[in-house]
Design a protein that fits this description.
- By secondary structure, the protein is mostly helical.
- The chain has one domain: Aspartate receptor, ligand-binding domain (Four Helix Bundle (Hemerythrin (Met), subunit A)).
- 86% of the residues lie in helices and 0% in strands.
- The mean pLDDT is 90.
Amino acid sequence: MALGIREKLFGGFGVVLALLLVIGFIGLRNTTTFAAQFKSLYDERLQSVVELNAVQQGLYELRLGAAGSSYASANADQRATIKAQDEKWLKQIDDNMRAYQTRQLVDDEKAGLQDWNTVYPEFKKTRQQIIDLVDRGDASSAATVRTDTYSPLTAKSTDAVSRLLAVQQSVGR
């Protein structure tokens, strides 16, 4: 049976239409898969990096705050201002670490969080000890605590956050 021109044209357009539908389906599937992967990357990695950077900034600012050497020479109004600023940084650290801990974490991140949870409470306790010593007028003891205990704890806290950031970089590759 010979096909007429009309049937051949409909057949050709039908094949083209079928191929177009297949290509459209493949494109739609790939687009939704890529979108889901990018959302996962954003939610699990980028947000974590933003939170850890905020923690890092807070630690940096706390080194310059009430536990710093300039606090001892400040007057009462300046000390109150410094303490208020420090509260903001402490809240930033606590809020961002709390948010970070709610994410899906790989084993290296869990280990890094254990390090953080060990050193950070000690960091805060020593920081408060320095402030109490300065407020009582014992600047020399505060300086000793700052040098002997607080500085190493600050370094350990910063290192813990840096290791968590390094894990983010390695997981993101």
